[in-house]
Design a protein that fits this description.
Length: about 500
Amino acid sequence: MTVATHTASRPCRLADVPHWDGEADALIVGYGIAGACAALEAAEAGASCLIFELASGAGGSTAMSGGEFYFGGNGGTPVQRDHGFADATEDFLNYMMMAGGPGADAERVRLFAENALAHYEWLQAQGVPFKGTYHPARTVEPFTDDTLVWSGSEAAWPFSERARPAPRGHAVQQEGMGAGRVLMEKLVAAVTVRRNIEAQFDTRALALIADADNHVHGLVVRSDGSERYYRARKGVVLCAGGFVSNAEMLRRYAPDALRIGFHVSGGNDNGSGIRMGMSVGGAAIHMDQFFSTRPFIPPECLIKGIFVNERGQRFINEDAYHGRIGQYIMRQPSGNAWLLVDNSIFERPKLFPNIEVAAVGEHWAEIEHELGMPAGELVHTVETYNRHAAAGSDPIFRKHADWLQPLTEGPFAAMSFGDSAWPAAGFTLGGLATLPTGQVIDPEGAVIPGLYAAGRTACGLPRWGEGYSSGMSLSDASYFGRLAGRHLAAA
Ligand SMILES: Cc1cc2nc3c(=O)[nH]c(=O)nc-3n(C[C@H](O)[C@H](O)[C@H](O)COP(=O)(O)OP(=O)(O)OC[C@H]3O[C@@H](n4cnc5c(N)ncnc54)[C@H](O)[C@@H]3O)c2cc1C
């Protein structure tokens, strides 16, 4: 058996390459959506491509995903317009800037906002189907084959004050959840049948090949137990996913993410792409940021409940995106939170029907006592909420009037949302710093010649856990994967 001598964290020096086993203009690591889109665009521009994928088939996390993209602006996509949402580019852009948080990349956001409609059409041209129907009920992703959903905090404070709300989640057509499978089937057909691009499976990219100045010239890969050396005439594109499944990297860069109990991942998000980029001087940014959720909707009636922490206090408007609420839950004392409901809205979360009902009572004081909260706190919180809700307002957390209803019909219940009762699901958002062209840059902002990154290996549009909205990862990975392929081909 051959023992691997190369690691992602150390480049193989050009002078140490014993021979070349093959070459192409573009060497692409990873065959999820970012890798597929980079290959399609590079090939379209005339570059030869070779994809290396460590699994036995294409797909990665993308194939397991909900297949939901985030699109808008430009007056609306056809499905938005058909359903009365003329989504202005400035509203889309403002929302994306808020979603990107304090480190939002204005250049990247504007580029995407202005080109999102064209990108939607490009995906359709690759064979990706969108039915064109609207699903108004709040959900995580459609359980139907509908397209358009509210997939973020668009209609919730504070987002609704700075960007006119519109639904922007666009799900690939498939009956039921998990449309990412259809998405990847269509992209793989485009890659193989239309573009005749070669992919090598069961092949792990081990290390970059770089000269003494850290200019990237190729890749060392392992397949069939042997190490092979491939030359990249124009560049290497790292599309190997994020690092949610690498506990050591989480400990170092995103320790809070160690509390994620369910990795939203195809299983190979071990950070090898990020480490390869760092090995030649690439900067890694926003590495502490991650998406995390306990998706309590559907049913949407639960939005009418209120979340409280162990002090019996509310901490967020419950109509915000479930991922934003997930972030807020994580930072509550002891990481504990409960969703309080009355009899009129009691249902169990569809995606977690075994949720622990931690307390039931005919009076809120009983719930307060059962949960061990300071006497009077929870009762005061509910009374205050009910008083304002009856008047159609929520002056403290600004939940929209559509979701305000006094919690007065007993029996009352508290459902557990703490780490131990319902472990959060999530994935990482930090990654290699890149220009919008996909070129990896060092901490000074200088381009590392011959190196590109896209998808969750890069830090892209989504870079703030509190602002993430469903669909942003696939939109980012596909659009900026394409830009990387295009720039590389022109290099
Ligand atoms: C259940 C679930 C639901 C989701 N729903 C949505 C959604 O609806 N909308 C949305 O925007 N996002 C969603 N996501 C997140 C989204 O799917 C991912 O963030 C996105 O697909 C990442 O794309 P990628 O191309 O960067 O990575 P991937 O699709 O994971 O592709 C990376 C590929 O690289 C391969 N690889 C890794 N290391 C190496 C190596 N060293 N050598 C060779 N190959 C390697 C992996 O095997 C993998 O195939 C969901 C994820 C999951 C798991």
